[in-house]
Amino acid sequence: MVSLAWSNLMHNKLRSLLSALAVGLGITLMLVSKGLATGSIAEVAQRMQSVDAELVVLPAQDNIIFTNGAPFPDLIRRLILKQKDERGPIAESVIPVFFGQVSMGGQQQRLFGVDPAQMPLFLGHRRVLAGKAFDRARAFAREIEARGEPLPDDADAWQAYMAPGLELVIDDRLRRVGRLDPETGQRVPYRLGDRVRVMGYDFRIVGIVETGVAGRVFAPLQTMREIVLAGEKKSSMFFVKLRPDIDPVAAADRLAALLGSGARVELKSTYGTLLRQSFAQVNMYMNASSGLALVVCFLFILLTMYTVVIERTREIGILKSLGVTRFNLLALSVSEALLISMVGVGIGIGLALLAKYVLHVVRPLLTVTLSGSLLSLAVLIGIVGGVLSALYPGYRAARLDPATALSSE
Amino acid sequence: MSDPMIHVRGVCHTYRHGGVQEPVLHDLDLDIAPGEFVVIMGPSGCGKTTLLNIVGLMMPPSRAEVLRVGGRDALGLDDAARARLRRHAIGFVFQRFNLLPAISARENVALPLRIRGERVDGQVDSLLERVGLARYAGKKPGQLSVGQQQRVALARALVGRPSLVLADEPTGNLDSENAEAVLALLGEFHREWHQTILMITHNPALAAGADRVIRMQDGRFCD
Ligand SMILES: Nc1ncnc2c1ncn2[C@@H]1O[C@H](COP(=O)(O)OP(=O)(O)OP(=O)(O)O)[C@@H](O)[C@H]1O
Ligand SMILES: [Mg+2]
User: Fold this and answer.
1) What is the ipTM of this complex?
2) Of B18, B34, B116, B200, which residue is least crowded by CB atoms under 10 Å?
3) All residues at 6 or more sequence positions from B83 whose CB lies less than 8 Å from its CB, including other chains
């Protein structure tokens, strides 16, 4: 039966190939969208783990993907620092982050506004490859922290005042991806001293750090607050580094109780899970649309198989005269559809690998992960879809009356 | 006389299309002994194909008192059992388009064996050789002439050594030369293997070699 199925498919190569291609495209869409989602999430989650802290304090909202803006006043930081047990404060440091956006490396990047003095906590064991992890901005930040009087309101004076704070530190992957040279149309790696426009200001790249740190782009927290919030000391989130002898779970509970409903306190290690959960909501639409695409692809197989049954009515009559059972005919139909969908899955995986490669070239910062389980899912979808789409046409073939089938031309 | 190969009593058949009923077979009795070569003749539309389909278990009659094929009571069989009986006991040759177009002549001939799950051995090629088509074994039906296709169909009907061969105007689409060739082959195999053959034809010349000729008219046998 399988060899007859194969011969039947080869008898109309173009049609078989088109059906396989349809399935292949659906599978590609599914693989790339899922692979992109999981890859990017995993990458972001992994980078967050690099921060030398145990807890994260996030805004109390369900979805942590869209944490923009700065809901937390500085009071929260000071409150956490005041928490003590019999041996002293439970937190060694509270590390505020102020999120912004910057367009670099051909896409929007999350800009990590951090206190230059706290950069070591973000770097951990990772090295500064070139320049410094903030230079003049260190002094600028201290100055702003200390200063209380109003800011200059004359534009030139303002620019001069801000200049030392306009520094960026980027990771090595972003450096390599680089910027688009408007003259040659080529990508050129970022270099120290390159200027990047952020929120209307010309920032300079002053340091390049090893890849794997929490952000791809860092700017001084104080500068960003100055620009966005007129110096108001608000933060998007905090990392909390606990005293080594403190149990993180107990500390998380304590801080959660302290901060009440406005914040959620999580272990840094659960950040990845949170991110996946948050993404699942967004992903639902992606899943739904790639699912829908797959359904359409398998409808294509169904239609093909149905056409085939109509076309081969007489052949089915001949097979019945030879003593083929209804079950055999159903099996024939299923075999053909399965062959189509398996070739389709092969095409789909091939195209997904190609898409991964192409994305790697044109959008080097995106990570597409085609894991074994994702590929198995594609095969499973191929099998289930192939079988399902063959059932009805196969049933029609099986049910044909042998004598009637034979009399058709 | 041993058990008849075909033993039919009171077979009636009525086609229904829409509300219209068309009685085609009227209370037929038929006995064919094992090894007999019987030809059915009669005007177009008299019900020959219908009878052949009923005897070949391709469709159930509207009514029948007895329908025994190859010693088995066919009336009580379900679809799968009828398929099994066709697979093991009956070989068909139709007027035209007998072959599956996607596979070679050799694979077409081998098909009954494959469906039975039997090994495909040298006899496929030796049969093809006997019908004079050894050179064409690898060709698809579309690359063969109508006469050649019909000889492949004959080889396929015989390859499983069925005890009953049903042929519905096997030469109806052929010129006289090809028709005679096919019929000669059928006669040859019959003399050698003694299958029971029930053949429909319009051609009186071809009926000459048969053991018995049954004439049909308006769904009845004329005696
Ligand atoms: N599937 C069917 N549905 C309805 N009527 C049918 C069907 N098959 C045959 N008939 C009718 O039954 C009658 C007998 O048909 P049948 O095919 O048995 O005749 P036949 O003797 O084989 O004729 P021919 O020599 O032309 O092949 C015809 O009047 C035909 O119109
Ligand atoms: Mg007929």
Assistant:
1) 0.94
2) B18
3) A320, A323, A324, A325, A326
Taking CA atoms, what residue in B is nearest to A316? Answer: B100
Token pair for B140: 């698809």
So where are chain B's domains? 33-63+79-221
Long-range CB contacts for residues A370-376, cutoff 8 Å, separation at least 24:
A370/A31, A370/A35, A371/A35, A371/A38, A374/A31, A374/A34, A374/A35, A374/A38, A375/A31, A375/A349
The DSSP result for A191-206, as a single string, is -TT-EEEETTEEEEEE
Query: Mean pLDDT score of chain B, rounded to an integer?
Result: 92
Q: What are the pLDDT digits (tens) for B93-152? A: 998 878 999 999 999 999 999 999 998 888 899 999 999 999 999 999 999 999 999 999
Q: Name the strand (E) or helix (H) holding A59.
A: strand A55-59
- List, for residues A211-238, the tens digit of each pLDDT value: 989 999 999 999 999 888 888 889 999 9
Rounded CA-CA distance B127/A217 in Å is 79
Give the bridge partners for A84, in sequence order: A89
Report the residue of chain B nearest A3, measured CA to CA: B103
Cα A109 from Cα A116, distance rounded (Å): 19
Give the residue, by CA position, lying nearest to ligand 1 atom 10: B15
Could you say which of A235, A250, A272 is where a domain stops?
A235
Choosing among 3.40.50.2300, 3.40.630.30, 3.40.50.300, 3.50.30.30, the CATH entry for B33-63+79-221 is 3.40.50.300
Q: Whole-angstrom Cα distance, residue B60 to residue B64?
A: 9
Is the C-beta atom of B48 inside 6 A of ligand 1? Answer: yes
Q: Is B53 on the interface with A (CB under 8 A)?
A: yes
What token pair was written down for A273? 């899970």
pTM of the model: 0.80
Q: Count the residues in chain B.
A: 223
> A with B: how many residue pairs have Cβ under 8 Å apart?
70
Say if A401 is an interface residue toward chain B (CB within 8 Å). Answer: yes
User: CA nearest A102: which of A6, A219, A24, A207?
Assistant: A219
Question: pLDDT tens for residues A318-367?
Answer: 999 999 999 999 999 999 999 999 999 999 999 999 999 998 887 777 88
Q: From the CB of B217, is ligand 1 less than 6 Å away? A: no
**Minimum-distance ligand 1 atom for the alpha carbon of B51:** 18
Provide, as residue numbers in chain A, all residues whose Cβ is less than 8 Å from the Cβ of B51.
Answer: none
Atom 27 of ligand 1, residue of closest alpha carbon = B44
Residue B50 clears pLDDT 80, i.e. is over it: yes
